[in-house]
Amino acid sequence: MTSPExxxxxxxxxxxxxxxxxxxxxxxxxxxxxxxKESGGxxxxxxxxxxxxxxxxxxxxxxxxxxxxxxxxFVTAPDLSPLFGGCLANFCRPALxxxxxxxxxxxxxxxxxxxxxxxxxxxxxxxLPERYLIREVSPALRALQERQLAQVVPELLPxxxxxxxxxPGIRGVILANELLDxxxxxxxxxxxxxxxxxxxxxxxxxxxxxxxxxxPQALTRLGGMSNEDYTSELGLGAEAWISETATRLAAGALxxxxxxxxxxxxxxxxxxxxxxxxxxxxxxxDDPLILPGLQDITAHLDFxxxxxxxxxxxxxxxxxxxxxxFLLDCGLMQQLERETDEHEHRRRVYETKILTLPSEMxxxxxxxACTRGLSRPLPGFGLLDLRGRL
Length: 390
Ligand SMILES: C[S@@+](CC[C@H](N)C(=O)[O-])C[C@H]1O[C@@H](n2cnc3c(N)ncnc32)[C@H](O)[C@@H]1O
What we know:
The chain is an alpha/beta fold and 390 residues long. It contains 14 helices and 17 strands. The site of S-adenosylmethionine has 19 residues, from helix 4.
């Protein structure tokens, strides 16, 4: 996601929430506080993140009031440009051809923009998938997706289905764009040479960090680095999602696009404050403990850990690269050239820059494709394959 203004740790000039928003945030804070008390005074950060984002009715992604304005807080690649969905259509095509059909399954479909641009490309250039399945955890966002798709591509609705869970035995392509950064992660800080789990407790000033016991999984990731006060995250939710999803994929591909790094860059001594990032009305800052339910909370991904989880579940990591190289190899420039309207073409040129420039989404965002039972290489990794860095 992109947010033009980055506040760093300076939260001084975030816009003030409305009275209604303050009331909803206070209700969620009370709900979290109750759980902290019932848990003996502290909960894991992962649980705090889960409640902030997904507590029924009040979490950031599930509150209908937030969901309808999701693009007021950040812009994702599919929301930015239909070129992104066009490139993903080009990624899916050869896998579906080799399988002789199959489904495209999008997990975490946000505003529905990716489904629209991807399906429109396949509608024009063929072939349409037998089915386009959407797994969306947020009832409010699902309703938004249903409205958008019914409005823009009503003729395709018979192929589109919202599902409650990923079925076993999937043959096709599973897409996860900016899903995994929004799954709850653990957080730790180094004390006396050990990574100690960070939890959340309460104080008269609001939520506060609490240092707990050793987080054993972090020890193996840090490669001996033990800088005092070094703080970072462990994407346990994202890794569990990859493991679970891989077991559902009988044949085809799983494509993850998100921001992150290989492990040696992720746990770099210079990244001493970790990767947590919050988005509120196009401002990015790094304090997840404020504005509960009103702001998005994300963590970058350790792509080495995701590749390990996929390989352990029997998938082949077929490619890993920057978003820019991925989109270019999936025909970004050819799509741009096809735009004949001068005004639209200027817009697409601007969008192409945001998607690909290293200073924008081009290098921080990575694409990783994992496959099972496919023999032909998939597009996306022909220009630059960075698997050696994982
Ligand atoms: C940051 S948004 C990205 C939306 C969209 N993929 C895009 O790129 O615009 C994350 C999306 O994932 C959904 N989500 C979060 N956890 C999920 C889960 N476990 N299963 C399915 N969807 C989930 C959210 O409700 C939201 O639609």
